[in-house]
Amino acid sequence: MRIPRIYTPQALAVNKPLQLEDDAANHVGRVLRMQAGQALQLFNGDGNNYGATIFDVSKKQLTVTISQVEPNPVESPLRIHLGQAISRGDRMDFAIQKAVELGVTEITPLFTERCGVKLDGERLTKRNEQWQKIAISACEQSGRSVVPQVHPAISLDLWLAQHTNSLRLTLDPWASATIKTLSASQDIRLVIGPEGGFTDNEVTATSQAGFTGIQLGPRVLRTETAALTAISALQLQFGDLA
Questions:
Q1: How far is residue 48's CA from residue 146's CA, in Å, rounded to a whole number?
Q2: How far apart are the two ends of the chain, measured CA to CA in Å?
Q3: How far apart are CA 72 and CA 148, in angstroms?
Q4: Which of 42, 150, 202, 216 could form an SS bridge with 131, CB 3.0 to 4.6 Å?
Q5: CA Rg value for the chain
Q6: Is the pTM here over 0.90, yes or no?
Q7: Which pLDDT tens digit goes with each residue over 132-190?
Q8: 147: exposed, middle or buried (C-beta count within 10 Å: 0-12, 13-18, 19+)?
Q9: How far apart are CA 122 and CA 72, in angstroms?
Q10: Which domains does the chain have, with CATH numbers?
């Protein structure tokens, strides 16, 4: 039986009793219905797995004791920063979840001319918090112990203006270059356009910012499909996807 993996932002140490946060305690105690004496695996983003045993379960709290710590060697050798145009409904949630499962290290949601999503103020803050929680859940599911940061959403122009020495890539169905024609790189910035694609001005802006257009094949993919296909292809060509 697979041991449940639970994220906690707390510092973790062997033989130190630990009280889980309300959300984690509720998931373990009420959703999974786990009892004292059962095993958990904890992680806090430092790259390690912490073996733990439930010490006490009550209606209001859950206490565990950590028995061991070991490095978790599942991180990709690639450092991929995904700039993902914000899409409607649950498509953005899906793109973030799957990108984390595939090994990205950073994600920045992007406002573009055709993104069609209006978010600001408190609504934007809450959405950013939701996206970070999705990234954490994806780490719990996929076995990662380093949590990718989901940066606050910004405009495409601001993201393109950030200094970077990474290989910069954007998808272009009419490009001649493909992932197979690229030189190997461990640091990659990948920008994905919205439903409807980038405008001509945005295409020009990405080119002026040093982004190379690549195509993934003869078919035009939806924005969430394009991101996952490109990440998978990069991991297959340069990373650890076998």
A1: 8
A2: 25
A3: 15
A4: 150
A5: 20
A6: yes
A7: 999 999 999 999 999 999 999 999 999 999 999 999 999 988 899 999 999 989 999 99
A8: buried
A9: 36
A10: 5-71 (2.40.240.20), 79-238 (3.40.1280.10)
